[in-house]
Amino acid sequence: MGFGDLKSASGLQLLNAFLASRSYIEGYVPSQADIAVFEAVGAPPPPELFHALRWYNHIKSFDKQKASLPGVKKALGKYGPSDVEDSTGTGGDSKDDDDIDLFGSDEEEESEEAKRLREERLAQYESKKSKKPALVAKSSLLLDVKPWDDETDMGKLEECVRSIQADGLVWGSSKLVPVGYGIKKLQIQCVVEDDKVGTDMLEERITAFEDYVQSMDVAAFNKI
């Protein structure tokens, strides 16, 4: 079990194949499993590994909340496909016997053999996954959009928000919710495809209407 070396091309390819039918490393919500693998990856995957890149950018958006995500971090080798050899371990106590090499070292040959096996298993895994229909990961968001004051035209504010169009974004119902001192915020629902629309993009485009919008927060986030 495991992804192998997530700094290597083969490790990232395995992660990309693993995420082709998943939104998260474990379960249906971001967790410490995602944070552990995210930290091991360390940098955005290349664009051609779009499943891994979509997941990486999504988990990156939880940077400020990562300590509060559910779950407990486990060893990196505990995550990933069960039919792939874990190459992240450091070995056991029996290594002491291997330190005495009476007939010379075969380390390079063993490394090549391990690499060949890993590539074969990666190819088998990707072949198996390619036969399954791809699932489109979607999320339902509830956004709080706050105006500057009680004189802000909330009808115009909502019109600006709904004017934002993108592939994978569908706006839903909305309502005005009092927040105090005569000020009301816009609470609006939307459904997004995770690999096409992120919360960072929504926040950037909504707050661009700076004449009406003071801030935007994600009030609720649920996988569909």
From TrEMBL:
Keywords recorded for this protein, A-Z: Elongation factor, Protein biosynthesis
Keyword Protein biosynthesis listed: yes
Assembly and binders: EF-1 is composed of 4 subunits: alpha, beta (alpha subunit of the eEF1B subcomplex), delta (beta subunit of the eEF1B subcomplex), and gamma (gamma subunit of the eEF1B subcomplex). Interacts with elongation factor EEF1A1.
An example Gene Ontology molecular-function term: guanyl-nucleotide exchange factor activity
InterPro entries in UniProt: eEF-1beta-like_sf, EF-1_beta_acid_region_euk, EF1B_bsu/dsu, EF1B_bsu/dsu_GNE, Glutathione-S-Trfase_C_sf, Transl_elong_EF1B/ribsomal_bS6, Transl_elong_EF1B_B/D_CS
Region called Disordered, residue ranges: 78-115
GO CC, one annotated term: cytosol
Purpose: Catalytic subunit of the guanine nucleotide exchange factor (GEF) (eEF1B subcomplex) of the eukaryotic elongation factor 1 complex (eEF1). Stimulates the exchange of GDP for GTP on elongation factor 1A (eEF1A), probably by displacing GDP from the nucleotide binding pocket in eEF1A.
Organism: Podarcis lilfordi
Family under the similarity heading: Belongs to the EF-1-beta/EF-1-delta family.
Biased composition (Acidic residues): 95-112
Lineage top rank: taxon: Eukaryota
Gene3D superfamilies: 1.20.1050.130, 3.30.70.60
Domain Translation elongation factor EF1B beta/delta subunit guanine nucleotide exchange: 138-224
Protein name according to UniProt: Elongation factor 1-beta
Residue stretches making up the Elongation factor 1 beta central acidic region eukaryote domain: 102-129
